[in-house]
Amino acid sequence: MRLKVVQPTDSDKPWYSKGLRFSCTQCGNCCTGGPGYVWTSSVEIDRFACYLRMDRSEFLKKYCRVIGGKVSLKERKNHRGEYDCVFLEEIEVGPGRRKRVCTVYDVRPLQCRTWPFWDGLLRSREAWESASRGCPGMNRGKQYSLQEIESLRDADDWPGYTGD
């Protein structure tokens, strides 16, 4: 007897099965907006503290808040009434020109590293397109395969992290 293997159909594949484009422009748009949370792990807290050359307890006191037993980076309200990540800063890049930058980009937490490949944005093409209106890096730049997208979506440590 020969059993026929069932092949997945196109309808079994996610809408982004052919991949998505994204390249971070470091515009800071994903680091501001309504109040929210940037959850950090114990390992990330240690990475931050080391990067900023401060001890862990000093880092936690200065940059973090505890919510429901979990640690999130603090936010500050900006002049537009939005809530910025504590590490988002505006710098002058020319006469009358300013740019928002992440001051800890090299050690940003997993939540930031995996943007925009989050469940909520991958839920539907509409959710992705809605987010792309505020993110100049979405739908441009590097092409991510389905495997890369799902790896980022499901990551539990820095993608590709090999140690300090």
Shape: globular
- Fraction of helical residues: 25-40%
Individual helix count: 6
What are the secondary-structure elements, in order, as H or E?
Answer: EEHHEEEEEEHHHEH
Secondary structure tally: strands: 9
Strand content: 15-25%
Biggest sheet overview:
3 strands, antiparallel
- The assigned structural class equals alpha+beta
Report low-confidence residues grouped into runs of 5 or more: none
Distance between the termini: 55 Å
Query: Rg to the nearest angstrom?
Result: 19 Å
Order of neighbouring strands in the sheet with most strands: 2-4-3
* Multimeric organization: single chain
Number of domains: 1
Mean pLDDT, rounded to whole units? 90
Topology (SSEs and partners):
Layout (H helix, E strand, L loop, with lengths): L19 E3 L16 E2 L1 H10 L4 H8 E4 L2 E4 L1 E3 L5 E3 L2 E7 L2 E6 L7 H4 L5 H4 L2 H8 L5 E7 L1 H8 L11
Helix pairs in contact: 1-2
Description:
- The chain is of the alpha+beta class and 164 residues long.
- It has one domain.
- Helix content is 26%, strand content 24%.
- It has 6 helices and 9 strands.
- It has helices at 42-51, 56-63, 110-113, 119-122, 125-132, 146-153; strands at 20-22, 39-40, 64-67, 70-73, 75-77, 83-85, 88-94, 97-102, 138-144.
- A 3-stranded antiparallel sheet has the order 2-4-3. Strands 1-9 form a two-stranded antiparallel sheet.
- A hairpin with a 5-residue loop joins β5 (75-77) and β6 (83-85).
- α1 crosses α2 (56-63).
- It is globular, with a radius of gyration of 19 Å.
- The model has no long low-confidence stretch (mean pLDDT 90).
